[in-house]
Amino acid sequence: MAVYVLDAEGVELRLAETVRGAGRSYALPARYPLSGRSPVADAFRAGRPLWLTPTELAAYGPIGPTTPETPTTPGVSLGALPLGGDGKGLGCLVVVDEAPGGIDADRRGFIELYAHHVAAGVEAAGPQALTQRRPELPGLTLDRLRVGSFVLYLDSGRMTADTQVLELFGIPAEDFDGRVETLLAVAVPDDIPALMSVLEPDLLTSGTAQLEFRIRRPNGELRWLGLRARVETAADGTPRRMLGVIAETSYLRPTADEVSLVQRLSAALAGATTVRDVGRAVVGALRDPLGAGRLAVAELQADQLVVGVLAPAEPAAWPEVWRAAWRSEWPEPPSHALPTLAEALREGQVSIWPEGADLEPGLAGIGPGGLAVLPLPADGRIVGVCLIGWEERHEFGPEERSLLTATAGLVGQALVRAHALDAEHELATMLQRSLLPRKLPELPGGVAVTRYLPATMGLEVGGDWYDVIPLPDGHVALVIGDVQGHSAAAATIMGQMRTAIRAYAVEGHPPDVVVAHANRLLVGMETDLFATCCYADLDMEEGEAWFVRAGHIQPLLRHPDGTTAELDVEGGPPLGVVADAEFPMTAAGLSSGTLIALLTDGLVESARLDLDDGVRRACQALGRADPSDPGGVADALLGGDSRRDDDVALLLLRYDGMRVRPTRASWTVWRLPDAVMHARRFTARTLRNWGVEDELDVALLVTSELVTNALVHTRGEVRLNLTLTADRLRIAVNDPSPRTPVKPTTVDWEATGGRGLLLIEAMSQTWGSVPLSGGKQVWGEISLSSPREEPPGAAPEVPPDVPADRPSAELPEGPGRKGPRRRRARR
């Protein structure tokens, strides 16, 4: 590859620079007369690229000195690309390649885009600077020109980028996931809209686009990059893919004169939101351009200097008074320990001391070659100070003094603004923490972890909340919600809703009633805000969970085998919309090792991420994570995106189960004349197999009454469920009728019915009824006289007296095989 530039007389193209690859070397002439016939001169005169195959190149004859390795060798192709448009005619870029079939279309596209960056460098340096080799001018060297290439596939949004592109963006190759968003994350926010106008597939048309933008490197450095891209279209005219090159263009920006320094510093300070950011911006904009050895930025609070940033940040690089106060990351030296500095702060004027000035050691050691003290004014007072020191002798001219004075004013205003933002952030953080639980309770049979990240845009307080509520009988409620909006009003409503839901849950209401009460409360507040919520009631002993969803995104489940998916929870409307809304419950069974993830939409949806894609990514992260470390799982779900348009709340629970796991059996009761007898036989054989003998008669009586009531008062399928826990037996019957059974207040001696519920209440420790989807479940619990230590065997085989053509023993399958959680009725 070589660059030819037009000479001063405009009669020939002279070789300015050559870069040779790892293959064979090719001799290229030192000059090409414009009046002669050659690929380079022809391309320059025509003003468009010239691509020659080996055969076409041979027709020109030797293009340079005749040697055994000149480009006339078979299999050598050549490209000549004129540099400079609009009639400028700067020169030509020549590319020689061992390509028997000619340089392919993709490489041509990249080289043509690359040529534009070379032309910009030639124009900035000036052709004479290249031909005369004057090192004091900002010349161009091809081996130093940092240019990388990428391909963006517009149908999928995926991209491939070479190592040079990733190095320019400061992204390690192993951290690049092929997403445009990963590169945009390091771009300066003000430049993102312009970048998206080029890279957004929906807005692309065929053609070439160019743009200069800024990125923030991991070390805080602000860097200018240039993008040139060309869109390829399919046969139907729709954009198919984009070929592009990215080059560093910082060398094209103005050097460190007064105007450019102030402009760069202003741009850096515009994005500074904390006192530490202000310090980093000052260091990045001033230290290297001014050639300073040390630079410090500090706030002035009473008589203390609260340091925001020191460069370099090693204690040994600073005088003793600074090292003595180095208590943590940054020192806080008292200003009265540095009398010269204190006087400069009182006067409020920029003070400059040349080499050898009579200063106290605490200042003389900062700048032995020269020291500038910049008091930072704002709002009629001095809010801080900036110290700039040089190791070698430094001459201060009048322009530099003016520059430092202008710089001090900019930094002072930025420091005040950042301090206000810091205070606002601290207030928002305190408010948010006061509204969320300070710590989570210890749960029997499970481990819960939470994460909350405020939005990085706007006020860092919002309406996302979570809660973990211990309930009686080994139950625990998991709650996550999101109030509409991102403001102090949303946070206030959030605090009220969290408190109300906790109160309703502790009162003992079933999940659907808790959410319904919270909905009516929010409607009654007469606020314009609404809220979404997901409420889960878990029986930690039995491994059963009931979910209620009010306009919220679905919870995620990771099963012990690693499979992960959304749990399909039937949902109701958001809270605060319809006063009489219904919120159905969905049951799920949990096995030991199951992970439940409740999250808000800020984790899976943003302006850059579609909801379905976000949920898919969350499921994949949940499936890959190690469930033995719930905290690590939560961190993996959050990912590494530091820019958030919305709050993120995550509640994760790993269900471990109790020491003695519940044992379950299920039976479909067919509507036969002797159905109750079959139910009693199934119960008897199951309990004998489980080793339950003392409570057998009571269990058979409760079974008879529950099954009889279901058969007599309902139509459709009836199902009998038996659950044996460590200290009690639960007998439950599901039926398709939504009507809740009502216990009679009195029963006449001559009545032939109405005693079933009275018998169940008398024989059970507790009983109740809860609604199911399209039906209900009535249950009773019997205490065991001898709590078991080890789980007994499985349920018995199908009783032989049941007709063979009626498969009456049906064990539920799938993740919900343990059946819905049953809750005491307290209505």
- DSSP helix count? 20
Low-confidence stretches: 65-71, 127-139, 791-827
Name the overall outline.
Answer: flat
Strand order of the largest sheet: 3-2-1-6-5-4
Rg measurement, Å: 38 Å
How many strands in all?
32
Largest sheet: 6 strands, antiparallel
Which structural class do the helices and strands define?
alpha+beta
Give a concise summary:
The protein is an alpha+beta fold and 827 residues long. A 6-stranded antiparallel sheet has the order 3-2-1-6-5-4, with helices on both faces. Strands 18, 19, 20, 21, 24 and 25 form a 6-stranded mixed sheet that branches.
Q: How would you characterize the overall build of this protein?
A:
- With 827 residues, this protein is an alpha+beta fold.
- Helix content is 29%, strand content 26%.
- The chain is built from 20 helices and 32 strands.
- The strands form six sheets. It has a six-stranded antiparallel sheet, with helices on both faces. Strands 18, 19, 20, 21, 24 and 25 form a six-stranded mixed sheet that branches.
- Helix 13 runs parallel beside helix 14.
- It is flat and about 120 Å long.
- Residues 65-71, 127-139 and 791-827 have low confidence and may be disordered.
Helices and strands, with pairings:
Elements: E1 2-6, E2 12-18, E3 31-33, H1 39-46, E4 50-52, H2 54-59, E5 77-83, E6 91-97, H3 105-125, H4 127-131, E7 147-153, E8 159-161, H5 163-169, H6 180-184, H7 192-199, E9 207-216, E10 222-233, E11 239-248, H8 258-270, H9 275-290, E12 294-301, E13 304-311, H10 320-324, H11 339-347, E14 351-354, H12 361-364, E15 370-378, E16 381-390, H13 398-435, E17 446-453, E18 464-471, E19 475-483, H14 488-506, H15 511-524, E20 531-539, E21 544-550, E22 556-558, E23 564-566, E24 571-572, E25 585-589, E26 594-599, H16 611-624, H17 630-638, E27 648-655, E28 663-669, H18 675-690, H19 696-713, E29 718-724, E30 728-735, H20 756-763, E31 766-772, E32 775-783
Parallel strand pairs: 21-24
Antiparallel strand pairs: 1-2, 1-6, 2-3, 4-5, 5-6, 7-8, 7-11, 9-10, 10-11, 12-13, 12-16, 14-15, 15-16, 17-27, 18-19, 19-20, 20-21, 21-25, 22-23, 22-26, 26-27, 28-29, 29-30, 30-32, 31-32
Helix pairs in contact: 8-9, 8-13, 9-13, 13-14, 14-15, 18-19, 19-20
